Amino acid sequence: LRNGGIILELDSVSSTRWLRQDANKANFLEKLEIPADFKDHRYAILIPFLPISFPIEEPDWLRAVEAENDLPEGSITTARWIKVKTRCTPDQRVAHAIFTLAEPKAANILLCDGLYICKEKLHPRKEKKDPLRCV
């Protein structure tokens, strides 16, 4: 890659599972003999019209959302507001947020079935990043 990184493509799911085990990962990185790390793929979804009173940055709140939606614990890795709360107008009650999920299955469940927060159904959608364009 341009930044000096490498992408490792494996031939099977079982190879991926094997390499993700801590002992195998450490051994692989040691034999590679260059400073490297693994980055897991994350899945971002857009949550429109989420009440800004919700403390989405707190891990306990995220675990409660996972429990309410029958998602495995740790499925939602991060949540952030698209626009910083301090830039919201004083009378603003809802804003858009981005949830980052660890597993594609969890993201698909939320995209298909919706997201329930405090018994209110929200309709998430895929976050589509705009392509970079040269001027």
In words, what does this structure look like?
- This protein is an alpha+beta fold and 135 residues long.
- The chain contains four helices and six strands, in the order ααβαββαβββ.
- Strands 2-3-1-6 form a four-stranded antiparallel β-sheet. Strands 4-5 form a two-stranded antiparallel sheet.
- The mean pLDDT is 88.
Low-confidence stretches: none
Global shape: globular
SS class? alpha+beta
Radius of gyration: 19 Å
Largest beta sheet, briefly? 4 strands, antiparallel
Strand percentage? 15-25%
Mean pLDDT: 88
Task: Give the spatial strand order of the biggest sheet.
Answer: 2-3-1-6
The sequence of SSEs as H and E is HHEHEEHEEE
Helix content: 25-40%
How large is the count of helical segments? 4
Distance between the termini: 24 Å
SS elements, strand count: 6
Q: Keyphrases for this structure?
A:
135 residues, alpha+beta, 4-stranded antiparallel beta sheet, 23% strand, globular
